[in-house]
Structures are given as C-alpha cells and as structure tokens.
Amino acid sequence: MNALARFDTPPPIRRVGSGEPLLLVHGFTMNWQAWGAVIDELATEFDVLAVTLPGHWGGPPVTGSASVAGFADYLEQVMDEAGWATAHFAGNSLGGYLSFELGARGRARSITGIGVPGLWRIGGAVAASVSRKFKLMGYGLPLIPLTRLPIVAQLTRLSVLRMLSYRPTRVPAPLAAIAIESAAHCRCYHEFLAQSATDIGNSADDVGGNILERVTAPTTVVFCEYDRIVPPRPSSARMVTGLPKVRSRTLSGVGHVPMLEAPAQVAAEIRSTIRFAQSGGDASQLG
C-alpha cells in the first residue's frame, strides 16, 4: 500500500455485549474507535453501542446542521433504531456534552461525561481559549497525510498525541494512528466549530451549570488531570457543586482523551457511575 493511501473507512457503529444498554459517544474529530479497549471491557456487563457522529470518519453525512441539536437528534435516532427508550451514556469531550443534552431530553439512565467542554460562559475567556486551540488545529488538518510517511510518522504522531494524551507512549500504535487519521476525515470540522461558539456553554446571564441543571439522571463529571484542551478549572468544578444528582471526579495522570492511554481507568469510572445511578444517584453519598 502507498504510504499516503487512505485507511479503510470504519463502520458507523459497533455493538457488542449484553446487559443494560450503554451508549458511548466520542469527541469532536474522533470516531467510535477512540474508545479502544473500553468497549470490550464494558461489553462483559453491558449491551454496548459505540457510535460515530455525522460528519465524522465512518459516520453518516450531516443532515441539517452540524450542531449540538443536530448531533443529539441523530443519537436519539440511533437509540430508537436499537429499541432503547433510555440508556446509560458515557461521552468524551463533545460526546460528554451531547450526553448531557440527551440527559436533558430524558433519554439517560446515567451519564459519565469525561473532559467535557461547556462548563463556562459563552463568549468568556475559557471558551475563547478552547476555540483558538481548535482553530489552530484546523490549519494542520491538510498535513495529516504526512504522518503516514515513516520518516516523519513518529515525530508528528507524538506531537499530535500530546494534545490528546498525557503520556503518548502509552497509546497503542494502531489506536494512535486511528485517532490522528479520524481528524483528517472529519467532514464537518469548520461548520461545527463555527456553530459551537453559540452551542456549547452557558449564556451570559446564566449563573450556574446551565445544561447540568436540566439533567435529571445521575451524572459524573470527570475532569482529566493533564487535559491540554479543556484544562480542569475551579470555575468548572463550581458548576457541579450543589447539584443533587451530579458528582465530580478527577482522573489522575491522563490527558483529554483518556481512553487512549488508560482504558481500564475509564471503564472503572463508567461502571462506578452506573452503580451510583443504581443506588439512587444521591450525590451527598459519594463513594
């Protein structure tokens, strides 16, 4: 195969296992494969459906707009086709925010949101900082095919992976290649980035965790200790405090997409959230 040849396009979903339904939702520019070993680990206990969002590598084309509402509508469609009225949700980054949105729509039994953006004010400094990072990354998308060349692969992959993980050398090589390749095939990058400026976050007159206040399912907000894209901030943690069914955790030693480098840790957090929900989801009884 030519060094610059495209990878095979993955299927739009992977479903495996049996038990209570669990929907896994990836982050912006990724696809369901970003969940890596988490899928098989959780499939021993749950009916796991890992889905790729519209406009992302292997996913369907965008119909309507590449927006939080549009992506959430698609996830509801996937659930309906699977015969699920409700499900446990686990989402990373954008996938976590979409999980909150589905929780606000009453479709969630529990939610594990990992490295989630949006616990900020729309138009504020934090939102602007994250937006700048993605705009800068957008300039590099045309160069991603060069990462397939052996002479530059190791250096460029490590550079990209440092944005996604704390210890890039812990990311299995096939998973690293997929994570980078998926960004090159993200067909809605610029459209969604423009839309997200008003889609994700709290309105200027909102004093608290806007979307979390509308979520009724037991929820864990997971901060990633060395997240270089959405760094943990005291202001974000404050938006979680005091909400009756919402708790927060911090995953130590991981970056923004912890499934890449610490799948067992991520799977354990998802299991913990589901047990939290099954016990009644009282955030005052943290275990």
UniProtKB/TrEMBL annotation:
<dbReference type="GO" id="GO:0016020">
    <property type="term" value="C:membrane"/>
</dbReference>
<dbReference type="GO" id="GO:0047372">
    <property type="term" value="F:monoacylglycerol lipase activity"/>
</dbReference>
<dbReference type="Pfam" id="PF12697">
    <property type="entry name" value="Abhydrolase_6"/>
</dbReference>
<feature type="domain" description="AB hydrolase-1">
    <location>
        <begin position="22"/>
        <end position="268"/>
    </location>
</feature>
<dbReference type="InterPro" id="IPR050266">
    <property type="entry name" value="AB_hydrolase_sf"/>
</dbReference>
<dbReference type="InterPro" id="IPR029058">
    <property type="entry name" value="AB_hydrolase_fold"/>
</dbReference>
<dbReference type="InterPro" id="IPR000073">
    <property type="entry name" value="AB_hydrolase_1"/>
</dbReference>
<protein>
    <submittedName>
        <fullName>Alpha/beta fold hydrolase</fullName>
    </submittedName>
</protein>
<dbReference type="GO" id="GO:0046464">
    <property type="term" value="P:acylglycerol catabolic process"/>
</dbReference>
<keyword id="KW-0378">Hydrolase</keyword>
